[in-house]
Amino acid sequence: MLQLNEKVKKININQIFNKMGLLLVLIVFIVLMTFLSPSFASWNNIRNLLIQSTVLVTLSLGVTFVIITGGIDLSVGAIEALSAAIGLDMIVNHNVPIVVGLFIILAIGLIFGLLNGIFVAQFGVPPMIATLATLSIARGIVLVYTNSANVYAPPSFTSLTSHYFLGLPLIVWLVVIFIVIAWIVLSRTTFGRSIYAVGGSELAARLAGIRTKLIVIIAYMISGFTAALAGILLTIRLESAGANAGDGVEMNVIAAVVIGGTSLFGGRGTIPGTVIGVILISLISNAVNLLGVPPAWDKIVKGVVIAIACLLDVYRNRSGKRVH
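User: That's the sequence. What structure does it adopt?
Assistant: Structure tokens below.
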């Protein structure tokens, strides 16, 4: 009986840690930065932080779906750059209506997501290799297409940054809508439950009648779609699109998702956790800027945080197996 009580107590501690640990870290970080930098808690800094987080949040939403299936997507930054550059070029240089240009951007994201999904689910290519290949393809195409030059957006394309609601640009509220939709799809639909089932055990999911290959393909298409959405948001923010957009963003995306509690082993993760992970990653960069720390330390700190998050993920995974 004593051993049973100890096991139950240990399970409860693990559950509390998994649910509240990241939030507590975030709160401690915010309190610490408030004391270290007087401008940290200013409304201007908070607003800028939220605006700068919009692209990373959008990218991370789609990658959360992929990682829960047990996969990975390294191509999101390249898809972001390619889709935005081609779509914006069509609007600016080929007189395509903005609505059609936006459709082209999203269609490119979906096509590359479909390619990733087919490579992984249909042909059995390891996700890291498949998405590394599409990363290279997409980045190469955008370099050739733009000749390494930027495409500048017309004022009508960037109006979301100049209109405010409750003190925040509409671009921030648009991303809040994306978050709510992703949360509903993942936690309140049959498709969302299928994502978790595939990530937990693809064989068991298949035996339960779930079309596992289709689920994986759709997960990668969602990631490609959100990468294209992020391309639109980045273009709105920077008022331009180019071949170097999103270069290296994959590290921050995967870091945010894993730090947010999504398991690299698949089968576990939440949209709120991912959002908190994005906020923490963004706060680290913000803190480095405010404290005048050399930019190289930003990458070092993020690398350490990723390593700790991965170790915690391994610990949680092993603890879960021991409990079962």
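The longest strand covers residues 151-152.
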